[in-house]
Design goal:
Layout (H helix, E strand, L loop, with lengths): L7 H18 L8 H26 L40 H11 L3 H9 L1 H14 L46 H7 L6
C-alpha cells in the first residue's frame, strides 16, 4: 500500500530547506559572493519560517492575518520600502547554484497540486512570500481566484432627519453673482482725498 504523501506545507518546507543547503554549499568555492549568499539564504530561510506559521494557522482554522504596511510619504521616510539588493532577473539563482534547477522543478510540480492550491487560497500570505522565490527560480505561480473585498458600509441618515430635496439646475442668468473687489485701477480713485 502506497503511503499518503505529506501535507503540502511540509513538502514546501523541505524544498526550501534543501535550497538553503544548496546555496550555502556554493559559498566556500567562490561561486557566490558572501554578501549575496547571506542575503539569499536569509531571504529563503525567513520565507520558510513565515510560510510554516501561516500554514499552521490555516490548518487550525484561524483567519489569515492581514497586515497593512504604512504608505510611503515624504514626511514619513521610515515607511518607505528598502531597496532590494537581490537581482530581479527571472531564474538568476540557477546559474551560480545549478542544484537550484532541481528544486525549481520540484516547486513547480508542487504548485500544480490541488492541496497546495487549496493551501494558497486558505492562506494568501504564502503566495506573497513565494513571489520572490519563484522569480529567482523562474517558476510560474498558479493563478488564484480573486479574493472578495469587503465593501465599506455607506453612512446612513438618522430616521428623524428630513430628506433633502433634490437640487435643481439653476440657469446661468439667474445665478447670484459673487461680490468682487474693484480692480487696482479703480482703487486709486475710490480713496478719500488727502487733507489740504
Amino acid at each position: 500500500m502506497t503511503p499518503a504523501p505529506p501535507p503540502a506545507a511540509e513538502r514546501l518546507a523541505r524544498i526550501l530547506d534543501d535550497l538553503c543547503k544548496a546555496v550555502a554549499a556554493r559559498g566556500p568555492g567562490g561561486f557566490l559572493p558572501i554578501p549575496l549568499l547571506l542575503l539569499v539564504w536569509t531571504r529563503i530561510r525567513r520565507a520558510s519560517i513565515r510560510i510554516a506559521r501561516l500554514a499552521a494557522r490555516a490548518a487550525a482554522g484561524k483567519p489569515p492575518v492581514v497586515r497593512r504596511t504604512p504608505r510611503a510619504t515624504p514626511h514619513n521616510p521610515a515607511s518607505r520600502k528598502p531597496a532590494s539588493r537581490l537581482p530581479r532577473r527571472a531564474g538568476w539563482l540557477i546559474g551560480p547554484v545549478p542544484a537550484a534547477g532541481g528544486y525549481a522543478s520540484q516547486l513547480h510540480y508542487l504548485l500544480t497540486q490541488p492541496d497546495m492550491i487549496a493551501l494558497l487560497e486558505a492562506a494568501p500570505g504564502i503566495d506573497r512570500l513565494l513571489r520572490p522565490l519563484c522569480r529567482m527560480l523562474a517558476v510560474a505561480r498558479p493563478k488564484l481566484p480573486p479574493r472578495p473585498t469587503a465593501r465599506r458600509p455607506t453612512p446612513r441618515q438618522p430616521p428623524h432627519a428630513p430628506a433633502e430635496p433634490p437640487a435643481r439646475d439653476i440657469p446661468r442668468k439667474d445665478r447670484p453673482r459673487a461680490a468682487r473687489a474693484p480692480p487696482h485701477t479703480l482703487r486709486r480713485f475710490t480713496r478719500p482725498p488727502y487733507p489740504a
